[in-house]
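Much of what follows relies on a compact textual record of a protein's fold. An example makes this concrete, so a full record is given next.
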Amino acid sequence: MKKFGFISTVLLLLPAMLVAQTIIGTQHNLSVSGPGTVTATSESEICIFCHTPHSSKPASPLWNKSDIGTTYTLYNSSTTHATIGQPDGSSVLCLSCHDGTIALGNVISRTVDIDFSGGVTTMPIGNTNLTTDLSDDHPVSFVYSSALATSDGQLKDPASITAPVALESSKVQCISCHDPHNNVYTDFLVASTQNSDLCVSCHDRNYWTTTIHRTSSSTWNGNGSDPWFHTPYTTVSDNACENCHNPHNSVGNIRLLKYDIEENNCLDCHNANVAAKNIETQVSKTYNHNVYNYFQVHDANETTLSNTLHVECEDCHNPHAARNSPASAPNANGFIEGTRGINQAGAPVAAIQYEYELCYRCHADSPSKPIGSITRQIEQSNTRLEFDNGNPSYHPVADVGVNPNVPSLIAPWTVTSRVYCTDCHASDGAGSPAGPHGSIYPQILKYQYETADNTPESASNYELCYSCHSRTSILNDDSFKEHDVHVRGDNIPCSSCHDAHGISSSQGNSTNNTHLINFDLSIVNPDNMGRLRFEDQGTFKGRCYLNCHGKKHNPRSY
Protein backbone atom coordinates (compact mmCIF):
# COMPACT_ATOMS: atom_id res chain seq x y z
CA MET A 1 0.00 0.00 0.00
CA LYS A 2 2.84 2.39 0.83
CA LYS A 3 4.49 1.64 -2.49
CA PHE A 4 1.23 2.29 -4.31
CA GLY A 5 0.76 5.56 -2.44
CA PHE A 6 4.26 6.76 -3.41
CA ILE A 7 3.67 6.01 -7.07
CA SER A 8 0.32 7.81 -6.98
CA THR A 9 1.95 10.86 -5.45
CA VAL A 10 4.62 10.93 -8.17
CA LEU A 11 1.99 10.61 -10.88
CA LEU A 12 0.01 13.47 -9.37
CA LEU A 13 3.09 15.67 -9.22
CA LEU A 14 4.36 14.80 -12.70
CA PRO A 15 2.24 17.34 -14.65
CA ALA A 16 3.34 20.12 -12.30
CA MET A 17 6.96 19.00 -12.64
CA LEU A 18 6.69 19.05 -16.42
CA VAL A 19 5.22 22.56 -16.35
CA ALA A 20 7.94 23.65 -13.98
CA GLN A 21 10.56 22.29 -16.32
CA THR A 22 9.31 24.56 -19.11
CA ILE A 23 9.41 27.67 -16.93
CA ILE A 24 12.70 27.07 -15.11
CA GLY A 25 14.85 28.72 -17.76
CA THR A 26 12.59 31.74 -18.28
CA GLN A 27 12.23 35.16 -16.65
CA HIS A 28 9.02 33.91 -15.01
CA ASN A 29 11.22 31.83 -12.73
CA LEU A 30 11.50 34.49 -10.03
CA SER A 31 13.10 32.14 -7.52
CA VAL A 32 16.69 32.44 -6.40
CA SER A 33 17.60 30.03 -9.24
CA GLY A 34 15.97 32.17 -11.94
CA PRO A 35 18.06 33.28 -14.96
CA GLY A 36 16.66 36.82 -15.16
CA THR A 37 17.73 40.07 -13.55
CA VAL A 38 14.71 40.06 -11.21
CA THR A 39 15.00 37.19 -8.71
CA ALA A 40 14.27 36.44 -5.05
CA THR A 41 17.10 36.60 -2.54
CA SER A 42 16.50 33.14 -1.10
CA GLU A 43 13.10 31.74 -2.13
CA SER A 44 13.68 28.45 -3.94
CA GLU A 45 10.09 27.59 -4.89
CA ILE A 46 9.33 28.45 -8.50
CA CYS A 47 5.55 28.25 -8.89
CA ILE A 48 4.80 30.08 -5.64
CA PHE A 49 4.98 33.54 -7.25
CA CYS A 50 1.82 32.75 -9.22
CA HIS A 51 0.21 29.60 -7.80
CA THR A 52 -0.75 28.04 -4.47
CA PRO A 53 -2.52 24.72 -3.88
CA HIS A 54 -4.66 26.15 -1.06
CA SER A 55 -6.88 29.23 -0.57
CA SER A 56 -6.13 30.60 -4.03
CA LYS A 57 -7.92 33.58 -5.60
CA PRO A 58 -9.48 32.61 -7.93
CA ALA A 59 -9.62 28.85 -7.45
CA SER A 60 -8.56 28.29 -11.04
CA PRO A 61 -5.71 28.49 -11.82
CA LEU A 62 -4.86 28.39 -8.11
CA TRP A 63 -3.77 32.02 -8.19
CA ASN A 64 -1.51 33.19 -5.37
CA LYS A 65 -2.15 36.94 -5.56
CA SER A 66 -4.98 39.19 -4.50
CA ASP A 67 -7.02 41.27 -6.90
CA ILE A 68 -6.92 44.79 -5.45
CA GLY A 69 -9.60 46.06 -7.83
CA THR A 70 -7.46 48.43 -9.90
CA THR A 71 -9.29 50.64 -12.40
CA TYR A 72 -7.33 50.87 -15.64
CA THR A 73 -7.22 53.50 -18.37
CA LEU A 74 -8.36 51.60 -21.44
CA TYR A 75 -7.32 51.59 -25.09
CA ASN A 76 -9.58 53.74 -27.23
CA SER A 77 -9.78 54.31 -30.96
CA SER A 78 -12.32 55.80 -33.35
CA THR A 79 -11.86 52.79 -35.64
CA THR A 80 -12.40 50.00 -33.13
CA HIS A 81 -15.71 48.16 -33.18
CA ALA A 82 -15.04 46.19 -30.01
CA THR A 83 -16.49 47.04 -26.61
CA ILE A 84 -13.40 47.16 -24.42
CA GLY A 85 -14.03 46.74 -20.71
CA GLN A 86 -11.93 46.64 -17.57
CA PRO A 87 -9.52 43.69 -17.61
CA ASP A 88 -11.03 40.43 -16.41
CA GLY A 89 -10.29 36.73 -16.59
CA SER A 90 -6.65 35.74 -16.97
CA SER A 91 -5.67 39.29 -17.92
CA VAL A 92 -6.28 40.44 -14.34
CA LEU A 93 -3.95 37.69 -13.17
CA CYS A 94 -1.18 38.82 -15.52
CA LEU A 95 -1.65 42.43 -14.50
CA SER A 96 -1.30 41.59 -10.83
CA CYS A 97 2.43 41.74 -11.57
CA HIS A 98 2.63 43.56 -14.87
CA ASP A 99 0.80 46.73 -13.85
CA GLY A 100 3.59 47.49 -11.37
CA THR A 101 1.25 48.11 -8.40
CA ILE A 102 1.61 44.93 -6.32
CA ALA A 103 4.93 43.72 -4.91
CA LEU A 104 6.26 40.69 -6.79
CA GLY A 105 6.84 38.94 -3.47
CA ASN A 106 3.35 39.68 -2.13
CA VAL A 107 1.65 36.28 -2.31
CA ILE A 108 -1.38 34.91 -0.47
CA SER A 109 0.43 31.82 0.82
CA ARG A 110 3.01 33.84 2.76
CA THR A 111 2.36 36.23 5.61
CA VAL A 112 5.52 38.19 4.78
CA ASP A 113 6.52 39.39 1.32
CA ILE A 114 9.28 37.43 -0.39
CA ASP A 115 12.40 39.58 -0.65
CA PHE A 116 13.99 40.31 -4.03
CA SER A 117 17.59 41.06 -4.91
CA GLY A 118 18.68 44.66 -5.32
CA GLY A 119 15.78 46.01 -3.31
CA VAL A 120 13.30 45.31 -6.13
CA THR A 121 9.69 45.28 -5.00
CA THR A 122 7.29 45.83 -7.90
CA MET A 123 7.81 45.16 -11.61
CA PRO A 124 10.75 47.35 -12.71
CA ILE A 125 10.06 50.22 -15.09
CA GLY A 126 10.38 49.00 -18.67
CA ASN A 127 8.44 47.41 -21.48
CA THR A 128 7.06 44.64 -19.26
CA ASN A 129 5.62 47.14 -16.76
CA LEU A 130 2.39 48.09 -18.47
CA THR A 131 1.29 50.40 -15.60
CA THR A 132 -2.40 51.04 -15.00
CA ASP A 133 -2.59 53.03 -18.23
CA LEU A 134 -3.46 50.46 -20.89
CA SER A 135 -4.32 53.03 -23.54
CA ASP A 136 -0.93 52.34 -25.12
CA ASP A 137 -1.35 48.54 -25.12
CA HIS A 138 -3.21 46.09 -27.31
CA PRO A 139 -6.73 45.87 -25.88
CA VAL A 140 -7.85 42.82 -23.91
CA SER A 141 -11.02 41.58 -22.22
CA PHE A 142 -13.37 42.21 -25.12
CA VAL A 143 -15.70 39.74 -26.79
CA TYR A 144 -14.35 38.61 -30.15
CA SER A 145 -17.43 37.41 -31.98
CA SER A 146 -18.53 36.83 -35.55
CA ALA A 147 -20.57 40.01 -35.26
CA LEU A 148 -17.44 41.96 -34.31
CA ALA A 149 -15.51 40.51 -37.24
CA THR A 150 -18.33 41.43 -39.61
CA SER A 151 -18.74 45.00 -38.36
CA ASP A 152 -14.99 45.61 -38.38
CA GLY A 153 -14.50 44.07 -41.82
CA GLN A 154 -10.79 43.44 -41.32
CA LEU A 155 -10.80 40.77 -38.62
CA LYS A 156 -10.94 37.02 -39.16
CA ASP A 157 -14.03 35.19 -38.02
CA PRO A 158 -13.25 33.70 -34.59
CA ALA A 159 -14.23 30.26 -35.89
CA SER A 160 -11.19 30.37 -38.20
CA ILE A 161 -8.69 31.25 -35.46
CA THR A 162 -6.59 28.20 -34.65
CA ALA A 163 -4.12 27.19 -31.94
CA PRO A 164 -1.81 28.33 -30.51
CA VAL A 165 -3.81 31.59 -30.55
CA ALA A 166 -6.94 31.09 -28.47
CA LEU A 167 -9.84 33.00 -26.98
CA GLU A 168 -10.85 32.69 -23.34
CA SER A 169 -14.60 32.46 -22.92
CA SER A 170 -14.94 34.15 -26.33
CA LYS A 171 -12.71 37.04 -25.23
CA VAL A 172 -9.28 38.22 -26.24
CA GLN A 173 -7.07 38.08 -23.17
CA CYS A 174 -3.34 38.30 -22.50
CA ILE A 175 -3.07 34.52 -22.91
CA SER A 176 -4.43 34.82 -26.46
CA CYS A 177 -0.95 36.00 -27.42
CA HIS A 178 1.20 35.00 -24.43
CA ASP A 179 1.91 31.64 -22.77
CA PRO A 180 3.35 32.43 -19.32
CA HIS A 181 4.97 28.99 -19.04
CA ASN A 182 6.70 28.88 -22.39
CA ASN A 183 9.16 31.39 -23.85
CA VAL A 184 10.10 29.72 -27.11
CA TYR A 185 9.25 32.83 -29.15
CA THR A 186 10.53 35.45 -26.64
CA ASP A 187 8.20 37.67 -24.60
CA PHE A 188 6.30 34.44 -23.83
CA LEU A 189 4.47 34.75 -27.15
CA VAL A 190 2.50 31.78 -28.40
CA ALA A 191 3.75 32.21 -31.97
CA SER A 192 6.46 33.99 -33.90
CA THR A 193 6.06 37.68 -34.71
CA GLN A 194 8.33 37.34 -37.74
CA ASN A 195 6.36 38.49 -40.80
CA SER A 196 3.69 39.39 -38.19
CA ASP A 197 2.52 35.77 -38.18
CA LEU A 198 0.99 36.27 -34.74
CA CYS A 199 -0.84 39.48 -35.75
CA VAL A 200 -2.42 37.96 -38.85
CA SER A 201 -3.86 35.15 -36.79
CA CYS A 202 -6.69 37.61 -36.05
CA HIS A 203 -6.13 40.65 -38.26
CA ASP A 204 -7.04 40.38 -41.93
CA ARG A 205 -6.20 43.81 -43.32
CA ASN A 206 -7.37 44.68 -46.81
CA TYR A 207 -4.53 44.70 -49.39
CA TRP A 208 -2.02 43.38 -46.80
CA THR A 209 -0.86 40.33 -48.75
CA THR A 210 0.57 42.45 -51.57
CA THR A 211 1.76 45.54 -49.70
CA ILE A 212 5.43 46.42 -49.83
CA HIS A 213 5.44 46.61 -46.03
CA ARG A 214 4.85 42.86 -46.01
CA THR A 215 7.05 41.85 -48.95
CA SER A 216 10.09 44.16 -49.00
CA SER A 217 13.49 42.73 -48.11
CA SER A 218 14.99 46.19 -47.50
CA THR A 219 17.23 46.55 -44.44
CA TRP A 220 18.39 49.43 -42.27
CA ASN A 221 21.74 50.88 -43.44
CA GLY A 222 22.82 51.79 -39.91
CA ASN A 223 22.44 55.57 -40.31
CA GLY A 224 20.20 57.60 -38.04
CA SER A 225 17.86 55.86 -35.60
CA ASP A 226 17.11 52.16 -35.69
CA PRO A 227 13.55 51.92 -37.06
CA TRP A 228 13.12 48.52 -35.41
CA PHE A 229 14.42 49.26 -31.93
CA HIS A 230 11.68 47.13 -30.40
CA THR A 231 12.13 43.92 -32.43
CA PRO A 232 14.91 41.42 -33.23
CA TYR A 233 14.23 41.56 -36.99
CA THR A 234 16.24 43.31 -39.67
CA THR A 235 14.06 43.59 -42.80
CA VAL A 236 10.83 45.34 -43.66
CA SER A 237 9.06 42.05 -44.43
CA ASP A 238 10.21 40.41 -41.20
CA ASN A 239 8.96 43.35 -39.13
CA ALA A 240 5.73 43.73 -41.12
CA CYS A 241 3.14 45.27 -38.74
CA GLU A 242 5.89 46.31 -36.35
CA ASN A 243 7.43 48.58 -38.95
CA CYS A 244 4.91 51.06 -37.55
CA HIS A 245 3.25 49.49 -34.50
CA ASN A 246 4.38 48.54 -31.01
CA PRO A 247 1.78 46.36 -29.22
CA HIS A 248 2.82 47.33 -25.68
CA ASN A 249 3.84 50.65 -24.14
CA SER A 250 3.70 52.36 -27.51
CA VAL A 251 4.73 56.00 -27.43
CA GLY A 252 2.18 56.85 -30.07
CA ASN A 253 -0.69 55.27 -28.17
CA ILE A 254 -3.17 56.22 -30.90
CA ARG A 255 -3.45 52.90 -32.75
CA LEU A 256 -0.30 51.63 -31.01
CA LEU A 257 2.11 53.49 -33.26
CA LYS A 258 5.81 53.55 -32.40
CA TYR A 259 5.85 57.35 -32.12
CA ASP A 260 3.20 59.88 -31.13
CA ILE A 261 4.35 62.27 -33.92
CA GLU A 262 2.70 60.57 -36.87
CA GLU A 263 5.26 61.29 -39.59
CA ASN A 264 8.08 59.84 -37.48
CA ASN A 265 6.52 56.41 -37.95
CA CYS A 266 7.07 56.83 -41.69
CA LEU A 267 10.19 58.93 -41.96
CA ASP A 268 12.39 56.67 -39.83
CA CYS A 269 12.42 54.40 -42.90
CA HIS A 270 11.54 56.81 -45.70
CA ASN A 271 14.69 58.88 -45.20
CA ALA A 272 16.83 56.71 -47.50
CA ASN A 273 18.06 54.67 -44.50
CA VAL A 274 15.69 51.82 -45.38
CA ALA A 275 13.55 52.87 -48.35
CA ALA A 276 15.55 54.04 -51.37
CA LYS A 277 13.77 57.39 -51.82
CA ASN A 278 14.34 60.16 -49.28
CA ILE A 279 10.90 61.57 -48.51
CA GLU A 280 12.19 63.33 -45.41
CA THR A 281 14.29 65.64 -47.61
CA GLN A 282 11.34 66.40 -49.88
CA VAL A 283 8.89 67.42 -47.13
CA SER A 284 11.57 69.76 -45.76
CA LYS A 285 11.70 71.82 -48.97
CA THR A 286 10.39 75.38 -49.16
CA TYR A 287 7.08 74.39 -50.78
CA ASN A 288 5.66 71.19 -49.39
CA HIS A 289 2.83 69.23 -47.96
CA ASN A 290 3.93 70.16 -44.46
CA VAL A 291 3.32 67.05 -42.37
CA TYR A 292 5.25 68.65 -39.51
CA ASN A 293 2.55 71.30 -39.01
CA TYR A 294 -0.01 68.95 -37.48
CA PHE A 295 -0.10 66.72 -34.42
CA GLN A 296 -2.74 64.02 -33.90
CA VAL A 297 -5.31 65.91 -35.98
CA HIS A 298 -5.67 63.12 -38.53
CA ASP A 299 -8.24 60.43 -37.80
CA ALA A 300 -8.09 57.17 -39.73
CA ASN A 301 -11.89 57.08 -39.69
CA GLU A 302 -12.43 60.50 -41.31
CA THR A 303 -14.17 60.53 -44.67
CA THR A 304 -13.51 64.18 -45.55
CA LEU A 305 -11.23 66.94 -44.33
CA SER A 306 -13.98 69.54 -44.09
CA ASN A 307 -13.53 70.32 -40.40
CA THR A 308 -9.80 70.69 -39.81
CA LEU A 309 -7.68 70.83 -42.93
CA HIS A 310 -4.44 68.95 -42.40
CA VAL A 311 -1.97 66.75 -44.18
CA GLU A 312 -0.23 63.70 -42.76
CA CYS A 313 1.54 60.92 -44.63
CA GLU A 314 -1.45 58.65 -44.04
CA ASP A 315 -3.82 61.15 -45.66
CA CYS A 316 -2.29 60.24 -49.01
CA HIS A 317 -0.86 56.78 -48.32
CA ASN A 318 -2.43 53.66 -46.85
CA PRO A 319 0.49 51.87 -45.17
CA HIS A 320 -1.42 48.59 -45.21
CA ALA A 321 -1.91 48.82 -48.98
CA ALA A 322 1.02 50.74 -50.49
CA ARG A 323 2.93 48.83 -53.16
CA ASN A 324 5.17 49.54 -56.11
CA SER A 325 2.57 49.14 -58.83
CA PRO A 326 2.57 51.59 -61.76
CA ALA A 327 -0.58 52.79 -63.50
CA SER A 328 -1.64 55.07 -66.33
CA ALA A 329 -3.58 58.30 -65.85
CA PRO A 330 -6.03 58.73 -64.34
CA ASN A 331 -5.88 55.42 -62.43
CA ALA A 332 -4.35 55.44 -58.95
CA ASN A 333 -0.98 53.71 -58.71
CA GLY A 334 0.00 51.31 -55.95
CA PHE A 335 1.65 53.93 -53.74
CA ILE A 336 -1.72 55.60 -53.05
CA GLU A 337 -3.91 52.54 -53.34
CA GLY A 338 -6.54 52.01 -50.67
CA THR A 339 -6.76 55.64 -49.58
CA ARG A 340 -9.93 57.63 -49.09
CA GLY A 341 -11.02 60.29 -51.55
CA ILE A 342 -13.77 62.37 -53.11
CA ASN A 343 -15.07 61.39 -56.54
CA GLN A 344 -15.96 63.70 -59.42
CA ALA A 345 -19.54 63.87 -58.21
CA GLY A 346 -18.35 65.17 -54.83
CA ALA A 347 -19.15 62.00 -52.87
CA PRO A 348 -16.67 60.35 -50.44
CA VAL A 349 -15.13 57.07 -51.57
CA ALA A 350 -13.53 54.58 -49.19
CA ALA A 351 -10.89 53.52 -51.70
CA ILE A 352 -9.92 55.74 -54.61
CA GLN A 353 -9.92 54.51 -58.18
CA TYR A 354 -8.35 57.65 -59.68
CA GLU A 355 -5.48 59.78 -58.42
CA TYR A 356 -7.45 63.03 -58.62
CA GLU A 357 -9.98 61.62 -56.12
CA LEU A 358 -7.24 61.71 -53.50
CA CYS A 359 -6.37 65.33 -54.27
CA TYR A 360 -10.03 66.34 -54.09
CA ARG A 361 -10.11 65.50 -50.36
CA CYS A 362 -8.37 68.80 -49.62
CA HIS A 363 -8.51 70.75 -52.86
CA ALA A 364 -12.19 70.46 -53.79
CA ASP A 365 -15.13 71.07 -51.48
CA SER A 366 -13.30 71.58 -48.20
CA PRO A 367 -14.18 75.05 -46.86
CA SER A 368 -10.61 75.53 -45.66
CA LYS A 369 -9.01 74.42 -48.91
CA PRO A 370 -5.94 76.28 -50.22
CA ILE A 371 -6.61 79.12 -52.64
CA GLY A 372 -4.71 80.13 -55.76
CA SER A 373 -1.85 82.60 -55.74
CA ILE A 374 -3.07 84.55 -58.80
CA THR A 375 -5.89 87.09 -58.73
CA ARG A 376 -8.13 85.87 -61.52
CA GLN A 377 -11.01 87.46 -63.40
CA ILE A 378 -12.99 84.39 -62.38
CA GLU A 379 -11.95 83.34 -58.88
CA GLN A 380 -12.16 79.65 -58.21
CA SER A 381 -10.29 77.14 -56.08
CA ASN A 382 -12.41 74.00 -56.19
CA THR A 383 -10.35 71.68 -58.38
CA ARG A 384 -13.21 69.21 -58.73
CA LEU A 385 -15.25 71.90 -60.45
CA GLU A 386 -12.26 73.15 -62.44
CA PHE A 387 -11.68 69.70 -63.99
CA ASP A 388 -15.34 68.90 -64.71
CA ASN A 389 -15.90 67.70 -68.28
CA GLY A 390 -18.82 70.07 -68.72
CA ASN A 391 -16.50 73.08 -68.51
CA PRO A 392 -15.62 75.27 -71.50
CA SER A 393 -11.97 74.24 -70.99
CA TYR A 394 -9.88 72.22 -68.56
CA HIS A 395 -6.68 70.25 -68.39
CA PRO A 396 -7.56 66.58 -69.09
CA VAL A 397 -7.34 65.21 -65.55
CA ALA A 398 -10.83 63.86 -64.89
CA ASP A 399 -11.67 63.38 -68.56
CA VAL A 400 -10.24 63.78 -72.07
CA GLY A 401 -9.79 67.43 -73.03
CA VAL A 402 -12.47 69.40 -74.86
CA ASN A 403 -10.13 70.97 -77.45
CA PRO A 404 -9.54 68.71 -80.52
CA ASN A 405 -6.80 71.01 -81.91
CA VAL A 406 -3.62 71.30 -79.83
CA PRO A 407 -0.72 71.30 -82.32
CA SER A 408 1.90 72.05 -79.65
CA LEU A 409 1.58 68.71 -77.84
CA ILE A 410 4.81 66.72 -77.60
CA ALA A 411 4.58 62.96 -78.32
CA PRO A 412 3.35 60.75 -76.83
CA TRP A 413 0.80 63.33 -75.63
CA THR A 414 -2.27 63.66 -77.86
CA VAL A 415 -5.66 65.34 -77.52
CA THR A 416 -7.01 62.02 -76.17
CA SER A 417 -4.41 61.79 -73.40
CA ARG A 418 -5.22 62.04 -69.71
CA VAL A 419 -2.83 63.58 -67.20
CA TYR A 420 -2.21 63.17 -63.49
CA CYS A 421 -2.25 66.00 -60.99
CA THR A 422 1.27 64.79 -60.21
CA ASP A 423 2.42 65.39 -63.79
CA CYS A 424 2.58 69.02 -62.70
CA HIS A 425 2.60 68.91 -58.90
CA ALA A 426 5.46 66.72 -57.71
CA SER A 427 8.89 66.83 -56.14
CA ASP A 428 11.42 68.65 -58.31
CA GLY A 429 14.74 67.26 -59.44
CA ALA A 430 15.82 64.21 -61.43
CA GLY A 431 15.42 60.99 -59.48
CA SER A 432 13.09 62.54 -56.91
CA PRO A 433 10.28 60.35 -55.57
CA ALA A 434 6.95 60.67 -57.33
CA GLY A 435 4.25 62.71 -55.71
CA PRO A 436 3.85 66.23 -54.34
CA HIS A 437 5.95 65.84 -51.20
CA GLY A 438 8.01 69.00 -51.63
CA SER A 439 9.58 71.26 -54.23
CA ILE A 440 11.74 74.34 -54.62
CA TYR A 441 8.97 75.76 -56.81
CA PRO A 442 5.70 77.34 -55.56
CA GLN A 443 2.56 75.20 -55.51
CA ILE A 444 4.84 72.14 -55.23
CA LEU A 445 5.40 72.20 -58.99
CA LYS A 446 7.64 69.66 -60.64
CA TYR A 447 9.32 72.25 -62.85
CA GLN A 448 9.73 76.01 -62.93
CA TYR A 449 6.64 78.01 -63.89
CA GLU A 450 7.12 81.77 -63.68
CA THR A 451 3.98 83.83 -63.14
CA ALA A 452 5.49 87.28 -62.51
CA ASP A 453 4.99 89.94 -65.19
CA ASN A 454 7.97 90.89 -67.36
CA THR A 455 9.56 87.46 -66.97
CA PRO A 456 11.95 86.81 -69.88
CA GLU A 457 10.85 83.86 -71.95
CA SER A 458 13.19 80.87 -71.74
CA ALA A 459 13.05 77.08 -71.74
CA SER A 460 13.84 77.06 -68.02
CA ASN A 461 11.40 79.78 -66.92
CA TYR A 462 8.49 77.88 -68.43
CA GLU A 463 9.87 74.37 -68.13
CA LEU A 464 6.57 73.13 -66.67
CA CYS A 465 4.59 74.15 -69.76
CA TYR A 466 7.30 73.09 -72.15
CA SER A 467 7.47 69.59 -70.67
CA CYS A 468 4.23 68.85 -72.58
CA HIS A 469 3.90 71.70 -75.07
CA SER A 470 6.61 72.20 -77.70
CA ARG A 471 8.44 75.46 -77.17
CA THR A 472 9.18 75.57 -80.89
CA SER A 473 5.50 75.21 -81.75
CA ILE A 474 4.45 77.89 -79.27
CA LEU A 475 7.03 80.43 -80.49
CA ASN A 476 6.22 79.57 -84.11
CA ASP A 477 2.61 80.63 -83.42
CA ASP A 478 1.19 77.29 -84.64
CA SER A 479 -1.96 77.64 -82.53
CA PHE A 480 -2.12 81.39 -81.81
CA LYS A 481 -0.37 83.85 -84.11
CA GLU A 482 0.47 86.24 -81.25
CA HIS A 483 2.13 83.74 -78.88
CA ASP A 484 5.65 84.78 -79.79
CA VAL A 485 5.06 88.51 -79.48
CA HIS A 486 3.31 88.10 -76.14
CA VAL A 487 5.61 85.56 -74.50
CA ARG A 488 8.98 86.39 -75.99
CA GLY A 489 8.43 89.90 -77.26
CA ASP A 490 6.58 91.45 -74.32
CA ASN A 491 7.70 89.02 -71.55
CA ILE A 492 4.13 88.22 -70.58
CA PRO A 493 3.88 84.95 -68.61
CA CYS A 494 1.65 82.10 -69.76
CA SER A 495 -0.41 82.49 -66.58
CA SER A 496 -1.47 86.03 -67.49
CA CYS A 497 -4.04 84.59 -69.91
CA HIS A 498 -4.28 80.86 -69.06
CA ASP A 499 -5.66 79.31 -65.89
CA ALA A 500 -3.98 75.92 -65.83
CA HIS A 501 -6.66 73.82 -64.10
CA GLY A 502 -9.75 74.97 -65.96
CA ILE A 503 -12.77 77.26 -65.75
CA SER A 504 -15.93 75.82 -64.23
CA SER A 505 -19.11 75.92 -66.29
CA SER A 506 -20.98 77.68 -63.47
CA GLN A 507 -18.66 80.69 -63.79
CA GLY A 508 -17.35 80.58 -67.33
CA ASN A 509 -18.75 79.86 -70.79
CA SER A 510 -17.74 78.40 -74.14
CA THR A 511 -17.40 81.83 -75.78
CA ASN A 512 -15.10 83.59 -73.37
CA ASN A 513 -13.28 80.82 -71.51
CA THR A 514 -12.12 78.26 -74.03
CA HIS A 515 -8.38 77.52 -74.20
CA LEU A 516 -8.14 78.01 -70.41
CA ILE A 517 -8.60 81.78 -70.78
CA ASN A 518 -9.02 83.42 -67.36
CA PHE A 519 -7.02 86.63 -67.08
CA ASP A 520 -4.59 87.56 -64.31
CA LEU A 521 -5.96 90.90 -63.08
CA SER A 522 -2.57 92.05 -61.83
CA ILE A 523 -1.34 92.07 -65.46
CA VAL A 524 -4.40 92.32 -67.73
CA ASN A 525 -6.84 95.22 -67.30
CA PRO A 526 -10.16 96.31 -68.89
CA ASP A 527 -10.05 98.47 -71.99
CA ASN A 528 -11.12 102.13 -71.94
CA MET A 529 -14.76 101.04 -72.14
CA GLY A 530 -14.45 98.70 -69.15
CA ARG A 531 -14.44 95.55 -71.27
CA LEU A 532 -12.24 92.61 -70.30
CA ARG A 533 -12.92 89.49 -72.28
CA PHE A 534 -11.80 87.02 -74.90
CA GLU A 535 -14.19 85.90 -77.58
CA ASP A 536 -13.73 82.53 -79.28
CA GLN A 537 -14.62 82.78 -83.00
CA GLY A 538 -13.74 79.27 -84.12
CA THR A 539 -10.64 77.18 -84.76
CA PHE A 540 -7.56 79.36 -84.18
CA LYS A 541 -9.73 82.48 -84.37
CA GLY A 542 -10.69 84.98 -81.67
CA ARG A 543 -10.52 88.55 -80.41
CA CYS A 544 -9.71 90.28 -77.12
CA TYR A 545 -11.07 93.37 -75.37
CA LEU A 546 -8.51 94.46 -72.78
CA ASN A 547 -5.52 96.61 -71.90
CA CYS A 548 -2.17 94.95 -71.29
CA HIS A 549 1.30 96.53 -71.02
CA GLY A 550 -0.24 99.81 -72.18
CA LYS A 551 -1.53 98.20 -75.37
CA LYS A 552 -5.26 98.57 -75.96
CA HIS A 553 -7.21 95.65 -77.44
CA ASN A 554 -10.66 97.04 -78.21
CA PRO A 555 -10.83 94.61 -79.84
CA ARG A 556 -7.77 92.99 -81.34
CA SER A 557 -8.48 89.99 -83.54
CA TYR A 558 -6.34 87.13 -84.73
Summary: DSSP finds 14 helices and twelve strands in the chain. The first strand starts at residue 142 and ends at 143. The mean pLDDT is 93. The longest helix spans residues 2-23.
